[in-house]
């Protein structure tokens, strides 16, 4: 998505070897118009696939997921994160390891909001090592829901997330911007989906 790539070029900053800081428009300060355009693009990519619900993980996935849900006209459910290891009968839970934060969170969705009748679209802000996506997949699988696909705002193609997702049986992954490499602090893009 050209508009997103242009914004990344203009406003994102490369931190260290593999982190992109996008807090001026995506995950701290949010640009609603860009978010709306991304929601429309997700809706275009996943239209006519019988999606009944959009699933994401708090906090950074919520804005793009809400815009996708708005454009697809379906509800959005965000998995809550907690450090708590207390298992609940009323929620689907999965452990997600974050390489960026180097810690494990449990993510959970209340059983009232996900069921075997659902065809779900998974949305996240980044695809890096794939742990967040695999965690969402585990919740959907537990619920017996059908996963229609995954929509990612920014994929770092040089990290193993997509491969891990494919190996876990997750197909139909579309990323609005794909980053091939960071070279001298600059972003090198791959052809987006
Ligand atoms: P994964 O589980 O695929 O390794 O990483 C996904 C999560 O880690 C995303 O939801 C995102 O919050 C965070 N993340 C991974 N890479 C980056 C990055 O380069 N920049 C930012 N801002 N967050 C990232």
From TrEMBL:
SUPFAM superfamilies referenced in this protein's UniProt entry, alphabetically: PRTase-like (SSF53271)
Keywords tagged on the record: Cytoplasm, Glycosyltransferase, Purine salvage, Transferase
Pfam families, per database record: Pribosyltran (PF00156)
Positions bound to 5-phospho-alpha-D-ribose 1-diphosphate: 128-132
Cellular compartments annotated: Cytoplasm
Principal location listed in the UniProt entry: cytoplasm
Pathway(s): Purine metabolism; XMP biosynthesis via salvage pathway; XMP from xanthine: step 1/1
Family membership noted in the UniProt record: Belongs to the purine/pyrimidine phosphoribosyltransferase family. Xpt subfamily.
The name this protein goes by in its record: Xanthine phosphoribosyltransferase
Gene: xpt
């Amino acid at each position: 998505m050209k508009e997103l790539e242009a914004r990344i070029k203009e406003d994102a900053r490369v931190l260290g070897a593999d982190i992109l800081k996008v807090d001026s428009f995506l995950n701290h300060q949010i640009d609603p118009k860009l978010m709306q355009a991304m929601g429309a693009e997700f809706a275009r990519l996943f239209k006519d696939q019988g999606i009944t619900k959009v699933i994401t993980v708090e906090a950074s996935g919520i804005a793009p997921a809400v815009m996708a849900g708005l454009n697809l006209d379906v509800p959005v459910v965000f998995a809550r994160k907690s450090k708590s290891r207390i298992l609940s009968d009323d929620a689907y839970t999965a452990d997600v390891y974050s390489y960026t934060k180097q810690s494990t969170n449990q993510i959970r969705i209340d059983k009232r909001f996900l069921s075997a009748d659902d065809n779900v679209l998974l949305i996240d802000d980044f695809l890096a090592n794939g742990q967040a996506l695999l965690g969402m997949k585990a919740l959907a699988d537990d619920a017996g829901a059908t996963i229609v696909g995954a929509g990612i705002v920014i994929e770092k193609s040089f990290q193993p997330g997509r491969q891990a997702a494919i190996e876990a049986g997750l197909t139909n992954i579309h990323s609005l911007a794909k980053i091939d490499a960071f070279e001298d602090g600059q972003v090198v893009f791959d052809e987006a989906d």
